[in-house]
Amino acid sequence: MAFDEGLLQIWRDALSGNTSITEKRMFGGVAVLYNGHMLCGVHKGGAMIRVGKDNDARAKKLKGISTMTFTKKAMAGWVDISPEALEDPVRRTKLLGMAIAFVQTLPPKI
Length: 110
Fold this sequence. Notes:
- The structure is a single chain.
- By secondary structure, this protein is of the alpha+beta class.
- It contains four helices and six strands.
- The chain has helices at residues 5-15, 56-60, 83-87, 89-103; strands at 21-26, 29-34, 37-43, 46-50, 65-70, 73-81.
- A six-stranded antiparallel sheet has the order 1-2-3-4-6-5.
- Strand 2 (29-34) and strand 3 form a beta hairpin.
- The longest helix is centred in the last third of the chain and has 15 residues, at 89-103.
């Protein structure tokens, strides 16, 4: 696979012990799912997280966070995370808080 296993391990460590978390290989990377909904993941060149549309601007104010694009289209509610931002526990914790709060509003798929 064409993604950084170290970045995936950071997500795994940050979410360890959460029984609602699963992983799925997709789009050349790995998606981390919360109750069956994509929460975050890794892809070639970095990582991503689903903060929800309402948190999009707030998340992008953090250093190392930018618009997530897929097939050259911006993905509303998703942000790209630089490796440095993902490695920073303060930024990672803020983003995970936004993401988990958003995904918990969605009905469980599993």
